[in-house]
Amino acid sequence: MSRVIVSCFGLSIDGFSAGPDQSLDNPLGVGGTTLMEWVFPTRTFQRMHGGGGGDTGVDDDFAARGFANVGAWILGRNMFGPVRGPWPDDEWKGWWGTNPPYHVPVFVLTDHPRASIEMEGGTTFHFVTDGIHTALTRAKAAAQGQDVRIGGGPATVRQYLQAGLVDEVHLALSPTLLGSGEPLLTGIDMPALGFRCTRHVASPHAMHVVLSK
Amino acid sequence: MSRVIVSCFGLSIDGFSAGPDQSLDNPLGVGGTTLMEWVFPTRTFQRMHGGGGGDTGVDDDFAARGFANVGAWILGRNMFGPVRGPWPDDEWKGWWGTNPPYHVPVFVLTDHPRASIEMEGGTTFHFVTDGIHTALTRAKAAAQGQDVRIGGGPATVRQYLQAGLVDEVHLALSPTLLGSGEPLLTGIDMPALGFRCTRHVASPHAMHVVLSK
Fold first, then answer.
1. d(CA B59, CA B200)
2. Nearest residue of A to residue B188, measured between CA atoms
3. What CATH number corresponds to the domain at position A45?
4. pTM above 0.80, yes or no
5. How many contacts, defined by CB atoms under 8 Å, are there between A and B?
6. Which one, of A75, A78, A74, lies nearest residue A22 by Cα?
7. Shortest CB distance from B13 goes to which of A31, A176, A197?
8. A143 in a domain, yes or no?
9. Cross-chain CB nearest to B191 (options A11, A175, A179)
10. Is the pLDDT reported for residue B1 higher than 80?
11. Disulfide engineering: A76 pairs with which of A25, A53, A156, A179, CB 3.0-4.6 Å?
């Protein structure tokens, strides 16, 4: 059965999933990379970015799990890039170079129409201007029975959570303080939405928790 | 040197350090005991409550550390008890029976004056009606060079953090969702207060993080 999942989402001690002031130099906001330090050494991450080797173990298991059985992604505009407002041209094609790590259709939420972009390696970016429900309908169709992963950022995950559309959330509780930025769960009553913590396992870098219904 | 510390403070995935609706039956609020499941099996906790045995290891190390070199405590009114408003009589003497686990002077913040209560085992409850600074001055004097531990609840810890009076915070990030209750760090910029995460270590029950300056 096709599920809607959030995976490999870092959460700081003080509740943020991205730092403030996202920019070309700080895709995760200032300090935001500290949320993801658990993933950088993993074999999954290293291979995804063209490297060899990398660590196996708990962190890698979760990194790999986040890509298994995913047939389509949904991203918020800010996760796609730092460009705001109407697209000035077609130059920006995501943070990830010519061959992005998705390899499936990716639906980008935006208020500003843009033609789809076919990238190398099977990734196609589609731009959806009529809201989160339409994006999910299109993503589910594209996923052909596989899962749809909500890739982020935090504001996009919050919208899907609050609409009751998410089946499972994997968070990596990271030993970092951001002080400000984008909160993930603040003001969202997860138990009222049916979630409980059904699994937790720690690595030396993070405590992984799985929230499901 | 006498420090001001917060120790063994549970924090849920969604940022709460106590559940909602504290009462006689739910001293930590509804669901709040799930924040402390890491501590119940420890040798330190078991001994403190008259039991034998108990587990050693990471969780016990942190539980014991929270009582080492503590010369005085400060508690908020709600951590002392569920009674609100003026004290109806002298009947309520804390949640902990005739021999509380403090064994040193304990300063209770309240708007309502009350005579000090000497308990068995060296604990004396003093009631402070003129604010957190006075309570800290009195606690430091009573601690005679040892540390002052801010015992809670969350609102009391927040007040001392926001006033810049805390030197170290140990949190146990607990794999639980509360949905509502008393947030601990929401709206407090810990890095701006000088804190960073200086240590983290996980047990099967929680990820312990130490925030210091």
1. 12
2. A179
3. 3.40.430.10
4. yes
5. 83
6. A78
7. A197
8. yes
9. A179
10. no
11. A156
Asked if the C-beta of B172 comes within 8 angstroms of chain A's C-beta atoms, the answer is no
Give me the domain span that covers residue A35. Answer: 4-82+98-212
Is residue B104 assigned to a domain?
A: no
CA distances from B106 to B61, B112, B134, B168 (A): 23, 16, 13, 19
Preferred mutation among A11, A14, A209 to probe B, highest tally of B CBs within 10 A: A14
> What are the backbone angles phi and psi of residue B51, rounded to the nearest 5°?
-90, 165
pLDDT digits (tens, 9 = 90+) for B103-155: 999 999 999 999 999 999 999 999 999 999 999 999 999 999 999 999 999 99
B150 found inside a domain: yes
- What is the average pLDDT value for chain B, to the nearest integer? 95
A200 touches B: beta carbon within 8 Å: yes
Number of domains present in the structure of chain A: 1
Contact B95, B62 (CB under 8 A): no
Q: Does the beta carbon of B213 lie under 8 angstroms from any beta carbon of chain A?
A: no
- Assess if residue B95 is contained within a domain: no
**Inter-chain touch A177–B197, beta carbons under 8 Å:** yes
Residue B14: its pLDDT value, please?
98
